[in-house]
TrEMBL record:
This is 2Fe-2S iron-sulfur cluster binding domain-containing protein. It comes from the Bacteria. The keyword Flavoprotein applies. InterPro entries: 2Fe-2S_ferredoxin-like_sf, 2Fe-2S_ferredoxin-type, Beta-grasp_dom_sf. Keywords: FAD, Flavoprotein. One of its GO terms (molecular function) is iron-sulfur cluster binding. Signal peptide: none annotated. The lineage of its organism: Bacteria, Bacillati, Bacillota, Bacilli, Bacillales. Residues 4-98 form the 2Fe-2S ferredoxin-type domain. It comes from Paenibacillus silvestris.
Amino acid sequence: MSGIDVHFWPDDKKISVRSGTTLLDAGRKAKVHIRTRCGGKAACLMCKVKVNDSSSKGLAPMNVNERLKLGSQAEEGYRLACQARVIGPVQVTIPEDPLKAAIRAQLARQAEEDDLF
Ligand code: FES
């Protein structure tokens, strides 16, 4: 039986999984880090990932709990990796860790200031 391709960005890692696998489990299998604190119970919202319109067809529709947790972000292409189940090929973007993004932005500002002097 052939699997379904799940492609993770920005790591550019691809894995083949069985239909019904969650993106969180696919990420673990691909050795892609998806943050989680609740262990996949749709409670922490740390596992948010983004899929584009064409890729969203590769995931089963959101359950009520996922839709409620995501709110308006559901319309922006976000999914909870622990709830979204693979049913077809899908491209998944893992957002940058907010702390890392803040540190990177601060370092960029410092570099600009250093260039001024
Ligand atoms: S792992 Fe906590 S909400 Fe998905």
